[in-house]
Amino acid sequence: MLIGTVCTLISAAGIGLALLVARRRRYATALRVAAVALLPVGLAMTGVVRFVVNMTVNPVAWAGFGVLTFAVLLLLVARLVEGRGRGRQAAAGGEGASGPAALPRTSSRGSGKPAAGGGDDLSDFSEIEAILKKHGI
C-alpha cells in the first residue's frame, strides 16, 4: 500500500513537471518527462517494486548475490591463471622444450641446416647487423 502511494506521488510530480515543460512549448521534452514519470506507477502496478523492496531486505537474496559474485570471481581468476600459463609455454618454447639450448642452431636463411661454424654466435649477429645497416638503423 505504501509502495503504491509513494510511486503515485512520484509520478504525479513528474506529470506536473511535464506540464510545466509543455507550457514552454518544448513538447518533445515534455513527452519524454511524462513517459519517465509514468514508470514508477507502472512498476508498482506490475509488482516489480514490491519484488525489489522485498529482495533488498531478504538475507537469503543477499547471500545469493554473494555466491554469484564469488562464482564470477572464480571464473575471472581461472581465466587469468590460464592466460599466464600460455605465456610461460610460449616463453619455454612450446612443447616441453627446455629453452633455446634444446633446439639445434639453424642458419637465418631458413634452409634447416645447422649454421656454419657450429657455436659461432658472431655469424648470426653479423647477418642481423647487415640487415639493420641496410635499413639505416
Tell me what you see in this structure:
- The structure is a single chain.
- This protein has 137 residues and is mostly helical.
- The chain contains five helices and no strands.
- The mean pLDDT is 80.
Per-chain topology:
Blueprint: H1 2-23, H2 27-46, H3 48-56, H4 59-92, H5 121-134
Helix pairs in contact: 1-2
Descriptive terms for the model:
single chain; 137 residues; mainly alpha; 72% helix; 0% strand
Structure summary:
With 137 residues, the protein is an all-alpha fold. It has helices at residues 2-23, 27-46, 48-56, 59-92, 121-134.
Instruction: Give the overall form.
Output: elongated
Tally of helical segments: 5
Overall pLDDT, averaged? Answer: 80
What proportion strand?
Answer: under 5%
The helix/strand order is: HHHHH
Gyration radius from CA atoms, angstroms: 35 Å
Structure classification: mainly alpha
Largest sheet: none
- Please provide the count of β strands: 0
Low-confidence stretches: none
Helix content: over 70%
- End-to-end CA span: 79 Å
